[in-house]
Amino acid sequence: MPRLAANLTMLYNEHVFLDRFAAAARDGFTAVEYLFPYAHPAAELAARLRDNGLQQVLFNAPPGNWDGGERGLACLPGREAEFRRGIVQALEYAEVLGCPRIHVMAGLAPAGSDRAALQAVYESNLAWAAAQAASAGRDVLIEPINTRDIPGFFLNRQDEAHAIVERVGATNLKVQMDLYHCQIVEGDLAMKIRRYLPTGRVGHFQIAGVPERHEPDVGELDYRYLLRVIDEVAKTCGWQGWVGLEYRPARGAAAGATTQGLGWRS
Fold first, then answer.
1. Do 6 and 27 form a contact (C-beta atoms < 8 A)?
2. Domain boundaries, the chain
3. Taking phi first (over 0 means left), then psi (-120 to 50 degrees means alpha), and beta for anything else, what does residue 188 get?
4. Mean of pLDDT over the chain
5. How far apart are the C-alpha atoms of 75 and 153, rounded to whole Å?
6. Mean local confidence (pLDDT), 29-53
7. Which of 68, 107, 183, 200 has its CA 20 to 30 A from that of 192?
8. For residue 211, cis peptide bond before it (omega within 30 degrees of 0)
9. CA dihedral 105, 110, 114, 119 (to 10 degrees)
10. In this predicted structure, what is the pLDDT of residue 255?
11. CA angle at residue 230 from 179 to 53, to 5 degrees?
12. Is the pLDDT of residue 252 over 90?
């Protein structure tokens, strides 16, 4: 089975955030990811990682006004200076946390906007972010997200994401391949894994059951098969990344909900 990372934004919600690191370690995880670290000092998060023998493998750059509904800044004209400040902040956290990957959310396409203009801003911002991250030894990831969960999100398809990575041409700009989003938008997951993983452009996977976004063994996908496909292809191409568990436990925030739902790993 590929290496699995617990997403602490969605898992272990019976605990306050800082206590989720220990909960994940108790369940045998050696790596974690989450959406945003910025509500806590980087040194405090680093201590939680260190005390629990965990690696930080992914977090997101600042997304703009998240509580106000924004979902990233990268494609938004006129927000370039704010985007750059966010990348600088993310790289500062990544340095303290020893995190090799930063996910940069594309953002919502404004109503009536010209897509070509948004694309130009998006690719320019990604090129700048990748250059800054390369100097720090980090990867920048972009993720296609389905428009059922985030209506209006700018980037939705795997082929679009890979074309962007090729055009920007930065070796540390990669695709975050979330199989939950991919199934909702496109399907044909096994063939997409076989097509894209050997390219070197896939930096990270995420999984969740479809359609409810619960445990991977709940819903329409056979994740045992898909994880075997990742293993098989990874062995042939040398991929050594992580698979993030970005799902909501079916039992919600009940005590032990995450732990009791982990039987699918065995």
1. yes
2. 3-265
3. left
4. 97
5. 10
6. 98
7. 107
8. yes
9. -10
10. 87
11. 90
12. no
Position 253 pLDDT exceeds 90: no
Q: ∠ at Cα 179 (178, 184), nearest 5°?
A: 110
Question: pLDDT tens digit string along 162-204?
Answer: 999 999 999 999 999 999 999 999 999 999 999 999 999 999 9
- Tell me how far apart the alpha carbons of residues 58 and 8 are, in angstroms, rounded to a whole number: 11
Q: How far, in Å, CA of 88 to CA of 196, rounded?
A: 29
CA 213 – CA 219 distance, rounded (Å): 8
Beta-bridge partner residues of 128: none
Percent of the chain with pLDDT over 70: 100
72-117: pLDDT as tens digits: 999 999 999 999 999 999 999 999 999 999 999 999 999 999 999 9
Q: Which CATH architecture fits 3-265?
A: Alpha-Beta Barrel (3.20)
pLDDT of res. 149: 98
* Residues acting as catalytic residues: 143, 246
Amino acid at 146: N
Q: What is the pLDDT of residue 266?
A: 84
CA distance linking residue 74 with residue 84, whole number of Å: 9
